[in-house]
Amino acid sequence: MVFVENYPRGHKELRGSFFDVHGPADTMSWFSDHGVELKIEDDGRVFPVSNNSCSIIDCLLHEARRTGVQMQVGKIVSNVSCICDGKFYVIIEKRTIDFLEHVEADYVLIASGSSRQGYDIAIQLDHSVVEPMPSLFTFKIEDTHLLDLSGVTFPKVKAKLKLGSLSKTIPQLAQIGPLLVTHWGLSGPVILRLSAWGARYLFKSNYTGTLIVDFVPDIHMDDVKRFLIQHKNKLVKQKVINSYPAQFGLVKSFWRYLLEREGIDGDMLWASIPNNALESIALLLKQCPFIVAGKGQFKDEFVTSGGIPLSEITLSTMESRIRPNLFFAGEILNVDGVTGGFNFQNAWTGGYIAGTTIGERASIIHKRETMISPSSQEI
């Protein structure tokens, strides 16, 4: 898969040289050089070996302190306006006391994530905002029998999402990957990817629809039926609940779920199970429907789709096309990726480009002022 195809919003605009500057390899090298061991999953997702996000946070905080970066907490930027000479007038407030600080800035970089505050400031500076909506969330499923499967994982499934009448007007929403059953529904990389690519369509459908899951995507339907019939003929005296074709790679609790869902008595002998029941089981394995009743119940969305349109940004510098010396980076832009480090990479690449651009411009101005200063003193 092309790297940018991991970005439901942004995959077209970022196809150029954006990730050539401080791209994934540079990011991984940087963290490795600073003591964070990383691992790459089979589907390309990258995580710290510790499986703990604190490894990343602690590394960044340590490096910020080491290089003298000043971090001010407990404050918010409430207003940014343009003044003469292309500079900015920034108003900063403290959260806990009646306090205002006024700062004159040559450059402003807004990297406020999905905070409403950042969008409001961008609007103050004449930018537009694509309405933010949740992305990367789990699905609430209406199926009481799933409770018995909570915690069960499937290494590889194919999942398709159908959203009623919207399905006729939108691209096909399908993903392949691991699936996790939770006590409220379904999760795992395959669901998170579906939620990301379908984020804005799911919003329109009020987060309801039908999820069709193929639990054996590498086995053709005809072969599924053949394996079931072979198993029936081979193990005629065994109870249906106690055995099933090994080729399916299922756990026993899921096999029990399939039987219960089809109303098949698990104590029945394989010799007695009718072929039409085997057909039904095969269909469930290949096209198992689940009713999506909403997002995960704990508001567990990870990122937001929407934000500043990329058409209003020069990606080679991350500078606003509307306001000179105004820059954006990260999730405030209308860019969002699937799970596995892609959203961080967008933020780090954009932040690197913006920071480098600001640094180079400030350095040039400083050199000019330094060159002018001695002659002024001589006069």
Automatic annotation (TrEMBL):
Domain RsdA/BaiN/AoA(So)-like insert positions: 134-303
NCBIfam families: aminoacetone oxidase family FAD-binding enzyme (TIGR00275)
InterPro entries (UniProt xref): BaiN-like, BaiN-like_dom_sf, FAD/NAD-bd_sf, RsdA/BaiN/AoA(So)-like_dom, RsdA/BaiN/AoA(So)_Rossmann
SUPFAM superfamilies, alphabetized: FAD/NAD(P)-binding domain, HI0933 insert domain-like
UniProt-listed Pfam families: HI0933_like, HI0933_like_1st
Keyword entries, A-Z: FAD, Flavoprotein
Cofactor(s) needed for function: FAD
Domain RsdA/BaiN/AoA(So)-like Rossmann fold-like as annotated: residue spans: 3-356
Organism of provenance: Acorus calamus (Sweet flag)
Protein name: Uncharacterized protein
Keyword Flavoprotein among UniProt keywords: yes
